[in-house]
Amino acid sequence: MRRIRSERPTRGAVILQHGLAAHGSVFDVPGRSLARHLAEAGHDCFITQLRGADLAADSCGSYGLDAYLDYDLPAIIEQVRAVSGRERVAYVGHSMGGVLLMLHAIDHPEAPISRFVAVGSALDYRPGKSALADQRRLLPILRRVLQRLPLRTLARLNALVAGYGPVLPIEQLNFARANIEPELHRALLREGFTDIPLELLLDLDSTFLEGGFVRRRGELSYLPRAAAFRVPSLLLVGCVDAQCGEPAVDETARLLSGAPELRVVRLGRAYGHTHDYGHFDLIVGRRANVEVWPILAEFLAPG
Fold first, then answer.
1. SS3 29
2. Contacts for 219 with CB less than 8 Å, ≥ 6 apart
3. What would the pLDDT profile of 2-27 be if each residue is shown by its tens digit?
4. d(CA 271, CA 263)
5. For the chain, what is the largest distance between any 2 Cα atoms, rounded to a whole number of angstroms?
6. Which pairs from 34-37 meet CB under 8 Å and 24+ separation?
7. What is the mean pLDDT of the chain?
8. What is residue 149's three-state secondary structure?
9. Which of 112, 126, 172, 208 yields a CA-CA distance of 20 to 30 A from 244?
């Protein structure tokens, strides 16, 4: 966990949680730092790391959703509360980072989360088209030969041509090429990804099955209990996000019917923005600092 404090009287603590195969550095890219933008606006920012989200990933062994939701996320929330001295904390989750908070808050309707921003996250990925669904057919093969998907190596290979060569699958899943500078694009691919345990991929695959996310061997299912979610929420979606499209986010907004406040914001040229937004562009896109971050910051500090 890394803290970026505000020099102003703080508006409160904010957890910045990365997604699948990523790590917290995406929130503090030099010259394109959402964490420092929020700190300048008066927020006490905590960039957090899930197990495996570093160069020591192999030492974590195999793990899945249960490890994140039973241990990692509760520990993160309690530590941020203790360090910040705040009874309730805000939470910004990118991709799986947002999914984890949704699942946690369904399991714990009284969770001490004041406000929630989901960046490219959905509770049900079946509506619309997700490129992740196309990759599912590889899982039965991968699980026979690998314990971990070597995404770090694949991303570094993709970095060799990112921005000017053919659009390879890692880039397609994560970036809209026109909305990120080539050097930054390649740097993120070289340094911003980590490997994924097959156990975790298999757990996340349940979102594409009838009934949606489940864990503890099916003991806990989430779509039937989604109305238990009680956190004021902002859902941000990029119009060319290959992983999490607008139909999936619209369905998520419908499912989270118990939220006392819920807003969906779409980003892309069709909505008056300079560029179309992909999965990571929502955080590090060319004009994310003027088109995305202010919406997020305003929601975190209403009034």
1. strand
2. none
3. 999 988 778 899 999 999 999 999 99
4. 15
5. 54
6. 34/92, 34/283, 34/288, 34/293, 34/296, 35/4, 36/4, 37/289, 37/293, 37/297
7. 92
8. strand
9. 112
Bridge partner list, 193: 22
How many domains does the structure of the chain reveal?
1
Given pLDDT bands bounded at 50, 70 and 90, which one contains residue 72? Answer: very high
Full-prediction pTM beyond 0.90?
Answer: yes
∠ CA 265-266-269 to the nearest 5 degrees?
140
Q: What are the backbone dihedrals phi and psi of residue 295, each rounded to the nearest 5 degrees, phi first?
A: -65, -45
- Give the separation between CA 122 and CA 115, rounded to whole angstroms: 17
pLDDT at position 303: 54
Phi, psi of 224 (to 5 degrees): -65, -20
| Site of tokens 């929601």 | 299
Q: Give the 3-state secondary structure of residue 115.
A: strand
Q: Are 263 and 234 in contact (CB under 8 A)?
A: yes
Distance separating the N- and C-terminal Cα atoms of the chain = 29
Give how far the C-alpha of residue 297 lies from the chain's centroid of Cα atoms, to the nearest Å.
17
The answer to whether residue 181 scores a pLDDT higher than 90 is yes
> Containing domain of residue 103, as a range?
2-300
Helices 182-191 and 151-159 pack at an angle, to 10 degrees, of 160
Question: pLDDT of 145-179, one tens digit each?
Answer: 778 889 999 999 999 999 888 889 899 999 999 99
List, in sequence order, every beta strand (DSSP E) within the chain.
2-4, 12-17, 43-48, 89-94, 113-119, 148-149, 196-197, 214-215, 220-221, 233-238, 262-267
